[in-house]
């Protein structure tokens, strides 16, 4: 069984996220999503999410492409996650191109094309949300 993992905030879940998750799942048989906690988002990414961790987790768990959602609490957990969850393929959107190449010693690392015209930031600004 080929096991895939990806990481992200996935706030205001949109079709750009879905495209990535669908493609990530198509690369294997089991997809784990490491979902950024509210604290990690604020402390490390200065992201204030519209939906809480639990709400974002519930949305991802409802998707047919997602088999398991785990918390992302720090940047450094990727190495241990790849070992702990017996990961074969690490996947991220290509806005992260090369940023996680260090994981190539442990698993395949793939950067997938982002869906260009959509983002959580764009949704918020279009709706005048802060
Ligand atoms: N994404 C995409 N197309 C978009 C928007 C996002 O393919 N239009 C992808 C991103 O490239 C990322 C994933 O969807 O792989 C999640 O995006 P974010 O929620 O913005 O995640 P990010 O803030 O990039 O967090 O440790 C890694 C970080 O947790 C990644």
Question: Looking at CATH, which topology would you report?
Answer: Rossmann fold
CATH architecture: 3-Layer(aba) Sandwich
CATH homologous superfamily classification: HUPs
Quickly name the level 1 CATH class: Alpha Beta
Summed over residues and divided by their number, the pLDDT gives a mean of 97
Strand order of the largest sheet: 3-2-1-4-5
Heteromolecules bound? [cytidine-5'-phosphate] glycerylphosphoric acid ester
SS-based class: alpha/beta
Give the beta-strand count: 5
Beta-sheet strand percentage?
Answer: 15-25%
Structural domains: how many: 1
- Output the radius of gyration: 14 Å
Large-scale geometry? globular
EC number: 2.7.7.39
Protein name: Glycerol-3-phosphate cytidylyltransferase
Enzyme class: transferase
Keywords: Nucleotidyltransferase, Transferase
Describe the structure.
It is an enzyme of class 2 (transferase). This protein is of the alpha/beta class. It has a single domain (3-127), classed as 3-Layer(aba) Sandwich (Rossmann fold). 34% of the residues lie in helices and 22% in strands. It has five helices and five strands, in the order βαβααβαββα. It has helices spanning 15-26, 38-45, 53-61, 77-84, 120-126, and strands spanning 3-8, 30-36, 68-72, 89-93, 108-112. It has a five-stranded parallel sheet with strand order 3-2-1-4-5. The model has no long low-confidence stretch (mean pLDDT 97). [cytidine-5'-phosphate] glycerylphosphoric acid ester (C2G) is lined by residues 7-10, 16-17, 20, 36, 45, 72, 92-93, 95, 114-115, 118-119.
């Amino acid at each position: 069984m080929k096991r895939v993992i990806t990481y992200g905030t996935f706030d205001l879940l949109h079709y750009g996220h879905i495209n990535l998750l669908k493609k990530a799942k198509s690369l294997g048989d089991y997809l784990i999503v490491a979902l950024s906690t509210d604290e990690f988002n604020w402390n490390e990414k200065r992201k204030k999410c519209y939906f809480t961790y639990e709400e974002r987790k519930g949305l991802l768990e409802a998707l047919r492409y997602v088999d398991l959602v785990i918390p992302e609490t720090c940047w450094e957990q990727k190495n241990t996650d790849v070992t702990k969850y017996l990961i074969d393929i690490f996947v991220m959107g290509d806005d992260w191109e090369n940023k996680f190449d260090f994981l190539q010693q442990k698993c395949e690392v793939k950067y997938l094309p982002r869906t260009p015209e959509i983002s959580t930031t764009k949704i918020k600004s279009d709706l005048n949300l802060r």
